[in-house]
Amino acid sequence: MKINAVIFGILTYTVTKKQPVETCQNRLPIKSGLKITEFFTGTWFTTHMKDASDLASCREYKFQQNPQGILLTYTGQVPDSNKPYAVTCSSNGTVVSLNASAPIPFNCVQKYTTAYHAPGKEFSSLGFSVIETDYTEYGFLYRCTQFNGEQNSYGIYILLHRSKTGDGSKANDILKKSGMDLPKFKKYSC
User: Fold this and answer.
1) 72-103 pLDDT, tens per residue?
2) What would the pLDDT profile of 44-65 be if each residue is shown by its tens digit?
3) 147-157 CB burial, b ≥16 within 10 A, e <16
4) pTM score, two decimals?
5) What does the alpha-carbon distance between residue 143 and residue 157 come to, in Å, rounded to a whole number?
6) What phi-psi label fits residue 69: left (phi over 0), alpha (psi between -120 and 50 degrees) or beta?
7) Strand, coil or helix: what is 34?
8) Which of 44, 57, 99, 174 is such that its CA lies 20 to 30 A from the CA of 161?
9) Does CATH number 2.40.128.20 belong to domain 2-187?
């Protein structure tokens, strides 16, 4: 009987050890009728984030559409060193083939070097779930990130603005309808 208990314990540990931690759990509905070609174009700035890590910073997202899909370049600064970085991502499919009622997936390659990643290697996947947008001033999104070689994924609610100085006021009504308030989001300077 003891042997069975030990074997059961080892098997339980092995199975649970391999289970990924899924932290990307958007609890809000994706915008119905999202116009992918209108949203994923031009420049957006992450001006506000909810429950972001201490390493979070404003990012400038630049979207371009081409026959292969959507190209995304984002820039920012590493908070502890203020070193700039740039990352290039491409959508997993052409604009026409992307499902507007699901997260829009991207594969990303870095353009900076850290102790953990070499330049030019694909190092993460991003998924953008657009919850609400007016297309011209703000976007309320859920962003999910998963780094290559890791089982865990990381999700966060963000506010994007077309302007670096977006204050979130245009999105305040939709945040309230979603059960969130603007003061729960940390403001980032771009």
Assistant:
1) 998 776 666 677 778 899 998 899 999 999 99
2) 999 999 988 777 778 899 999 9
3) eeeeeebebbb
4) 0.81
5) 6
6) left
7) coil
8) 99
9) yes
